[in-house]
Design a protein that fits this description.
alpha/beta; five-stranded mixed beta sheet; 31% helix; 16% strand
């Protein structure tokens, strides 16, 4: 299966999961596992090399693609952080008008000091908790998870939720 097909499948899954009318390119990160929810399936485990990165950048250059979403495994699993941070910064530098979302099972308070978060626009934090599952929530699967506006949160020093978080 080639990367284009995987990206197309993942884009459709992300579209359904997010329930929005904008496209984002999901990048599934392998390594580390935090249960983020049972509402989306992502294909991972393929090597991420320069050719794959350039293919993602080609897709990001399209006008109808609004950004990229890092999902898991867990992009912020300690072994993933250096590569995810470098890629997020490169995406941000090459496509400053595109949004970058990141899903993690870590809480904001555990990751707030990561140096590359200035390249991320929105973080959905916290593990999926089955007993708090709520299908009426936007962009998250359980009530304990937060959809955080990273820039406003860093500016104010207090967690600021992304607008239009719930229906």
């Amino acid at each position: 299966m080639d990367l284009k097909r995987i990206v197309r499948i993942a884009m459709m899954a992300a579209l359904i999961f997010a329930g929005t009318y904008t496209f984002k390119i999901p990048i599934a990160i392998t390594g580390g596992y935090t249960h983020l929810g049972d509402c989306a399936i992502f294909v991972g485990g393929l090597p991420f090399d320069e050719a794959a990165k350039e293919e993602i950048f080609t897709e990001l250059a399209k006008d109808y693609v609004s950004g990229v979403t890092f999902s898991g495994g867990d992009p912020l699993y300690p072994a993933n952080r250096e590569q995810v941070g470098a890629l997020a910064r490169e995406v941000h530098a090459r496509f400053p008008e595109k949004t970058i979302w990141l899903y993690t099972g870590y809480r904001w308070e555990q990751i707030a000091d990561l140096p590359f978060l200035d390249a991320i626009d929105v973080i959905v934090d916290g593990p999926f908790i089955e007993s708090q599952k709520n299908t009426q929530l936007c962009w998250r699967g359980s009530a304990n998870q937060r959809v955080i506006d990273v820039r406003r949160t860093r500016e104010t020093g207090t967690v600021c939720l992304h607008e239009n978080t719930d229906k």
